[in-house]
Amino acid sequence: MRLELQTLSYRPGLIRAPVSLEIGETGMRHAGGAFHHWTDLTGVHYASWRSGRVRGAKLVLTFHSEQEVIAAGFAPGDPAIPVLMKTVLTELASARPGMSVQVGAGKGLEWAMFVIGVVSALLGLGILGAALASGVSTARLMGAALPILLLGLVGYFLLVAYRPWRDVPPVPVEQLIADL
Fold it and tell me: Is a pLDDT exceeding 60 seen at residue 1?
């Protein structure tokens, strides 16, 4: 059997140097790195984001020996990174049909946003409690009610949305390819 690899190049950031990725029906590697067989793949995680005018995507492939991370920020309308992600996922789907992908921000971001939610909710309750305990006038309390309520609500919604202990159901790789 002949190992034939397709070489793809991508820029991890708008001002970063290009990185080469070699991919084939049996596995992949970053140029110069160790070759990873699709059969050694234990998990796949995908996340995408938008920050102002820059979009980003991250694909983490966990193999028995190590992780391969393909992450890049790109300008809107630039098809290179979505095409690269689709190519990697298509090769993965043909080698490992039925493989599932965890889609989401990841546990680190979930914990960070959850803690921000806890702090916001506690600050809202603390400010309200301090205002009531200090005997502030009703007119001043009513003036501060909206910001206090908003702070508490933002905290509550962050608490609910970013519960780090919840299980996010995995998505079949074929569905993710169709959604990209």
Answer: no
Beta-sheet pairing, 54-63 with 171-172: unpaired
Per the CB < 8 A criterion, the answer to whether 73 and 13 are in contact is yes
Contact between 68 and 28 under an 8 Å Cβ cutoff? The reply is: yes
Taking all residues of the chain, what is their mean pLDDT, rounded to a whole number?
85
What's the sign of the alpha-carbon dihedral 72, 103, 91, 41?
Answer: positive
Which residues contact residue 10 at a Cβ distance below 8 angstroms, ignoring those fewer than 6 apart?
A: 18, 19, 21, 70, 72, 80, 81, 84
d(CA 22, CA 29): 5
Mean pLDDT, residues 13-31: 83
Query: Which of 109, 151, 101 lies closest to 128, judged by CA?
Result: 151
